[in-house]
Amino acid sequence: MSTTPIPVTVLTGFLGAGKTTLLRYLLEGDHGLKIAVIENEFSEADIDGALLGDKAVRIVKVANGCVCCTGSKDLSYALTVLLEQLDQGEIEFDRLVIECTGLADPGPVAQTFFMDEDLREHYLLDGIITLVDAVHAQEQLSRSIAQAQVGFADRLLVSKRDLVEEADFLALCERLQRINRRAPVHVADHGRIDLSVLLDIRGFNLNDQLDRKMLFRPLMAGRTEKPDNITSLALKAERPLDIDRISRFMEGVLERHGSNLLRYKGILNIVDEPRKLLFQGVQRLYGADWDREWEDNEVRESVIVFIGMDLPEAELREGFESAQV
């Protein structure tokens, strides 16, 4: 099998948001990439297969229905089959796209690449892209699954922008940023968008890429009737952290609220330590490691962003404050 990990992009979004249109644009683009697709179609009819034709190297059907409902077993099997066929020379691809149904929670898909060691050696989860229908978004975002799709995203793509007024579009962008402050919002014009937005995101790499200006900029008051269940919370500490205290803090957060967390990431300044401590996770699965040393011209501060359901803001702020020296 290939020794170079194959980048994986998870494409999600609510029903009618334009995932198939975007996927067709990606497959037909003049980029020289060989792309395989795992199509997660919710019905028995091969709807997307008919639309996509033979542009993909191979479209693998994952069971009959939503892979996230049947667990990760079928997805793991499909991923293994692709590797075997690649190794045997039956197919050739250098990137993989997993298209989730509009009713799917992308969390279990992402967890597959954390839990299976064999798959982790051959696949690299690059990022989760969520499409949002500008026309129907405010209605669809009343559903927790649509909010979860936004919360998991590394990139948010708004489709049908030309069908809504500027004020409504801006209100939607503000709402999306309240749910997920770490994912930039882009517009997809009938499925067309610069490939740099879709590929090589490195959303699941342990790195110090956090846009502090975006995380801490003020947002307008929401125009929704009630607050969204899923929100994001960014915390910052100018004083260094005690490593034992911050460890206990994160362990307690995961123990008490792990089932409500979607994504979280931190860049930590540990007392008497010249290196940055990085960590990130999906729900209860996370990784941490030491990174490069702080540079002389860098502001040494700790930043954590949580994205989850019904986040206990006061408790998280107090716990993070107690970890500071």
Automatic annotation (TrEMBL):
It comes from the Bacteria. Keywords: Chaperone, Hydrolase, Nucleotide-binding. InterPro entries: CobW-likC_sf, CobW-like_C, CobW/HypB/UreG_nucleotide-bd, P-loop_NTPase, Zinc-reg_GTPase_activator. SMART domains: CobW_C. The keyword Hydrolase applies. Residues 230-324 form the CobW C-terminal domain. SUPFAM superfamilies: Hypothetical protein YjiA, C-terminal domain, P-loop containing nucleoside triphosphate hydrolases. Gene3D superfamilies: CobW-like, C-terminal domain, P-loop containing nucleotide triphosphate hydrolases. The keyword Nucleotide-binding applies. Pfam families: cobW, CobW_C. It catalyses: GTP + H2O = GDP + phosphate + H(+). Belongs to the SIMIBI class G3E GTPase family. ZNG1 subfamily. Zinc chaperone that directly transfers zinc cofactor to target proteins, thereby activating them. Zinc is transferred from the CXCC motif in the GTPase domain to the zinc binding site in target proteins in a process requiring GTP hydrolysis. NCBIfam families: PRK11537.1. This is GTP-binding protein. The lineage of its organism: Bacteria, Pseudomonadati, Pseudomonadota, Gammaproteobacteria, Pseudomonadales.
